[in-house]
Amino acid sequence: MAEGRMGRRPQRRFLSCWRRRTTVRRSGPSTSSVTAPEYHYISMLGSIILIPLLMVPAMGGSPDDMAAVVSTVLLVSGMTTLLHTFCGTRLPLVQGPSFVYLAPALAIIYSPEFFGLNHNNFKHIMKHLQGAIIIGGAFQVLLGYTGLMSLFLRLINPVVISPTVAAVGLSFFSYGFTKVGSCIEMGLLQLLIVVMFALYLRKVKLFGYRVFLIYAVPLALGITWAIAFVLTATGVYSYRGCDANIPASNNVSAYCRKHVLRMKSCRVDTSHALRSSPWLRFPYPLQWGTPIFSWKMGLVMCVASVIASVDSVGSYHASSLFVATRPPTAGVVSRGIGVEGVSTVLAGLWGTGVGSATITENVHTIAVTKMGNRRAVGFGAIVLILLSFVGKVGAFIASIPDVLVAALLCFMWAMLCALGLSNLRYSAKGSSRNSIVVGLALFLSLSVPSYFQQYRLQPNSNSSVPTYFQPYIVASHGPIHTGSSGVNYILNTLLSLNMVIAFLVALILDNTVPGGRQERGLYVWSEAEVARRESAVMKDYELPFKIGHAFRWVKCVGL
């Protein structure tokens, strides 16, 4: 009995301190809800639109295809955000394409069976991606609505989430500056401006708001894009007799072959999507064709959906500290994961190229603005849906030069890594146990995939694949060789993903190495019985229109 009482004291003390903190921070949402949509969506612009700008060229898509995918992403992000605010955790969290799904998607794009495709390779690859995403989403639905997530929560703690999310950001280092170097002056300028806004000018206020910190990404993009436009118009990136739209391999002139990549990277007029796209566009399900289902690609996406769920659990807990009376119950977390699975299925049906999840930058935005209003986020989601019907909006975004996209992604991935490591603030500071677990997880997440990616890789075996995407062709040369090509594909692909290795190492070590509750920083979730007795908690998490009353018997997915 004495041990039981002693075990509960830290939890009570944590909850009492937490109540005091949230009381201070909840003053913002009710008074400033009008500006909340701007804060949430403009500050997270990079997370919503940058993924298709990277993926579509890798799939062989045209600028028109990219514009269509961007419009689809805007529509699905709006729909899934509304779905989550009504039927998920009900926390004011924006949903959208997740970086967690990006590496598995690239591994599927560069699967051996797609080498040598000449015609309609974009649609063919997209249909395979759709099938894999739908399978991964369906698995996540089962994980959430069967209550398995409630049991899985016992294994997920800050020491597990921190290296897993950080590894998602670190895994794209081969793309970042390699692509920036194709137009080094514009790429560096973009990177320096966004760093200056986010760090050096972060405390500067205009009209009472930290504009530079909140809008660092869109402001930096707008300024650098304008400078690139002026340089293009004045002929700085023009070379006599050379056309940026003619591939270097088709150029007879050695002079043009030397400068065509620089022209394509630096100029702002190489994309014709804005001129050719219609004013009205209506993204619809199965617009790319009937999805193609492959069990091996589907299993890769199932593992990605587990990692996405782990990432979302950290976002749920961190955001609840700012905008809710108490943390959600384990059932509410399961419900949120189930809705994210439904959202990923919708992303697969519409064809966004990646699954949908809670955008990690939500936590940063809420922490900076001290705002988190459900209605405001819902209003912003409706705006996204309306913008998706304007074809010129998607085309305008699709015309962002590649080098500017790469520079912004360098910042976004670094920020994602930092947000992941920030989860360690809930664990004991200075704990050698936690330091070793996180350090091992991060190091092995870089070293083990590197072994798989470089195993018997011939330098020029896939010259059609850019060097920064070479790590994703591991399925064709990985070290695992069994009697089944499908098993080889799954194991070589999964073990070459940084986030998978970080998750496995951290999960095993954190749950087997002895450590106290305070040292490990175990998440404290609300008890359902206690939550039902508090009207404020019910207001935060109960389903609307009293729908939840019909499902109270399903304890694993609600209050």
Structure, explained:
This protein is an all-alpha fold and 559 residues long. It has one domain. The protein has helices at residues 2-25, 27-31, 36-43, 45-58, 63-87, 102-109, 121-145, 148-152, 158-170, 173-180, 184-200, 211-214, 216-233, 254-266, 273-276, 295-323, 330-350, 361-369, 374-388, 391-398, 402-421, 432-454, 485-494, 498-512, 517-520, 528-532, 535-541; strands at 95-97, 356-358. Strands 1-2 form a two-stranded antiparallel sheet. Helix 7 (121-145) packs antiparallel against helix 17, helix 11 runs antiparallel to helix 13 and helix 16 packs parallel to helix 18 (361-369). The radius of gyration is 24 Å and the shape is globular. Mean pLDDT is 85; it is low at 1-36. Keywords: Membrane, Transmembrane, Transmembrane helix.
